[in-house]
Write a structure and sequence with these properties.
The chain is mainly alpha-helical. It has helices spanning 2-21, 27-64, 67-70, 85-104, 108-131, 157-178, 182-205, 240-262, and strands spanning 139-140, 154-155, 209-211, 218-219, 223-224, 227-228, 230-233. It is 67% helix and 6% strand.
Length: 263
């Protein structure tokens, strides 16, 4: 046990540093990922760390998948593929909170919240990283008109399939790792996908959208072409990280409410 308490934190640190080396994480993202990994391991043990690893590995690899085809999206999106602390917190913050709460107040409900949070984060990430590779443009849920690929708040058939696949992967892994009932496994999948849907709705109706006055590009960036952009839609304080965190947090809480009501 004492050896494990030394080896596991060292392993988490090595993985975080390797992710920084391969540009999966920025320096701040590396520190945040290390802290998140420690809380998840402390709260849910090796199995929790494996489930978190499945999310992190698949999402990181997908961010690099067909990267050249995604290069033009860098001008639309606020941040690049190397995740900073805010992006790590947005996707893994709820999982870290669940780990901490399971240390302080042990209860099976935290395993459910943890699993749903990762299913939601994975669902949204898969939809974002693979949906942009769709041959057809997505449709905005706000105006039901076709918009450029990579636009927040838009859906496509290919992206929806990717979202469902990302969620079911985490649900099946959680089932195997935590010996869950099939009913709760289905709930993890459904609520993970629901979290992705919430993310899309928030992205369409609340997330800030800007326009570059220099080149006319619609973007999430506040600075483009070295000049300040103007906000056309949404709220200034609602960026993509805020949308991601709230959707993941909401999905986990929906699962907790169902758990409490049923049990």
């Amino acid at each position: 046990m004492e050896a494990e308490q030394l080896i596991i934190p060292f392993f988490i640190a090595i993985v975080a540093l390797a992710s920084y080396y391969y540009n999966f994480l920025s320096f701040s993202g590396t520190v945040s990922a290390f802290v998140t990994g420690l809380l998840v391991w402390s709260g849910f043990g090796i199995n929790g760390l494996i489930l978190m690893g499945i999310f992190f590995l698949t999402s990181s690899l997908l961010s690099k998948y067909k990267q050249k085809r995604k290069e033009n999206l860098g001008e639309m999106h606020e941040k690049g593929s190397a995740r900073d602390w805010a992006q790590v917190a947005a996707n893994g913050g709820t999982a870290a909170i669940a780990g901490l709460l399971n240390i302080l107040f042990p209860n099976p409900v935290w395993i459910l919240a943890f699993s749903i949070s990762l299913a939601s984060a994975n669902s949204d990430t898969w939809a974002s990283e693979l949906g942009v590779l769709s041959k057809s443009d997505p449709v905005s849920v706000k105006g039901f008109k076709k918009v450029p690929r990579g636009t927040s708040g838009a859906i496509s058939g290919f992206g929806t399939i990717a979202a469902a696949t990302g969620s079911v992967l985490i649900a099946i892994a959680a089932y195997l790792l935590f010996n869950l009932d099939l009913d709760w496994t289905v709930a993890i999948f459904a609520l993970g996908l629901a979290g992705s849907i919430v993310d899309t709705l928030l992205g369409a109706f609340l997330q800030a959208g800007y326009k570059c006055l220099e080149c006319g590009l619609d973007t999430e960036k506040t600075i483009h072409c070295s000049k300040k952009t103007i906000r056309l839609t949404g709220h200034e304080w609602v960026n993509n990280d805020a949308v991601n965190f709230f959707s993941v947090f909401a999905a986990a809480n929906m699962g907790m409410i169902i758990y409490i009501v049923l049990l």
